[in-house]
Amino acid sequence: MGRISVDGESKAFSIGMDIEPKQWDADKGITVGKSDEVLTINRKIESLKLELEQHYRNIVENQGFVTAELLKNALRGIGTVKNTVMQEFAELVEEKRKSIGIKIVASSYGIYPAAYRHFKGFLRHKYNSDDIPFSVVTEAVVEEYDYYLKIDARLSTRTARATMKPFRTVVMRAFNKGLLRNDPFFDYTFEKIISTPRWLSHDEIDRLMKLEIKSPAQDFVRDMFLFSVFTGISYIDLKNLQKTDIRQQEDGSLWIILNRQKTGATSYIPLLDIPNKIIDKYENTKFSGDEGRIFKIRSSASVNGHLKELAKSAKINKRLVYHMSRHSFGTEICLSGGVPIETVSRMMGHLSIKTTQIYAEATRTKINE
Predict the structure, then answer these.
(1) How far is CA 163 from CA 119, 132, 157, 189, in A?
(2) Quick one: DSSP state of residue 256?
(3) What pLDDT shows up at residue 81?
C-alpha cells in the first residue's frame, strides 16, 4: 500500500503487488532480498515515487495548488488530461449533443457550441491564447468575460446571460472534480431579465377573427394563431399535437392533455368551442397532419411572415408573432376573465407560478380589479 500526504490530508492506494511480511522493511519502505520478485516490487515503488513527483509539479504548474486527492487521481489516470477550460468545455458540448432527444431538445443544444465559440473568442481577445488552465479562472475572469459578452461581442442582456450559463456549468464541473479550489461564481449575480409579454386585446382578437381572407394558406395561419389564443398551446406543441392528446372526460367535455416539449410539464386545457370548430374545419383537408398529428403546420418563419401581413390587414399596430397567441391566452382570455392564476399556470404548463405571474403583472385590467 501507498499513502500520499499533503497539508495533513492523506489518501491511501494499492500498488497491486504482494510480498511476505518478513521480506518487508517498514522503516525504509522497500522489500529486502535478492529475488526477482523483490527487485520488481522495489522498481515499481521507485517508479511510483518518481511519477508522483512529476504529477505534483504538473498540478502545481497548471492549477496553482495540489491536494492528496488530486495526486491520487493523477496516479490513477483521472483528471490528468482535461485540466484546461476549453477541454472541459468541449466535453460538455459533446455530452449535450449526445443528449439531444433524450434530456434536451435540439433547439436547446445550439447555445452550447455558441457559448464555446464565444469563450474561445474571449481568450483570443484577452489572452491571445486558445486555452487556459483552470488555475487562472478567478472572479476577475468571470467579470471580464461578462464585460466581453456585453460590450465587445455586443450581445443583448438576455443572450449574454444564456451564453454565460454554459461557462458556469464548465466551472462548476471543474470545481466538483477538485480542479478549482474556490468557486469563481460565488459572488457573481446574473443580471435579472425583466420580461414584458406582448398580447392582443379583445378588440384586436375580434378584428383578426372577423377578417375576410381569400388565401387558404393565410386563413389556415390565422386559424392556427386563434387556436393557440384559446388554448395557450405554443407553436411547437401545436405542430406536434396528436389526436390522442384530446381526451373526453366523464362529464363529456373535451380536454387537451399533453407534455410540453420545452419543459416536459403537463398541460391540462379545456377544449373550448372555437378551437374545437377549427379542428373540425381542417379535418381531412390538405392542412391535416400525418402520423396522428391534427394539423400540418409550416415553418415558424413562414407562419410569422403570414402573421405580419394579417396584422396589417386587421389594422393591428403590433409586430405580430406566433408566441403572442400564448401570451394573449394567459392575459386576455384567462387572467382578465377572472381565471385563478393557479389554474392558468396548470393550463399553460408552467413549471413555476412565478412565470405565470409575469402575465398577471402585465395586464392593466388585472391591476384595476
Answers:
(1) 9, 19, 10, 14
(2) E
(3) 46
C-alpha cell read off for 350:
408552467
Classify 259 as helix, strand or coil: strand
Sign of the dihedral defined by the CA atoms of residues 224, 225, 231, 232, in that order: positive
Checking DSSP bridges between strand 30-31 and strand 9-13, what pairing results, if any? unpaired
Grid cell locating 311: 396584422
How many C-beta neighbours within 10 Å does residue 204 have?
20
Percent of the chain with pLDDT over 70: 94
For residues 309, 313, 317 and 321, what is the CA-based torsion angle, rounded to 10 degrees?
A: -30
9: three-class secondary structure by DSSP: strand
DSSP string, 28-92: TTEE-SSSHHHHHHHHHHHHHHHHHHHHHHHHHHHHS---HHHHHHHHTTSSSS--BHHHHHHHH
Burial 173-202 (b: 16+ CB within 10 A, else e): bbbebbbbeebbbeeeeeeeeeeebebbbe
Reply yes or no on whether the pLDDT at 115 is more than 50.
yes
Q: DSSP assignment, residue 104?
A: B
Give the CA count within 13 Å in the CB-facing half-sphere of 168: 14
Helices (H), the chain: 36-63, 68-75, 85-98, 106-109, 111-127, 139-147, 157-176, 202-210, 216-229, 235-239, 273-281, 300-313, 323-328, 341-348, 353-362, 364-368
Q: Dihedral sign, CA of 312, 329, 194, 106? A: negative
Q: What type of residue sits at position 12?
A: A
pTM above 0.70, yes or no: no
Strand pairing report for 254-259 and 246-248: antiparallel
- Note the pLDDT of residue 193: 67
For residue 257, the surrounding DSSP H or E stretch is strand 254-259
Contact 235, 228 (CB under 8 A): yes
SS3 155: coil
* Confidence grade of residue 78 (pLDDT, cut at 50, 70, 90): low
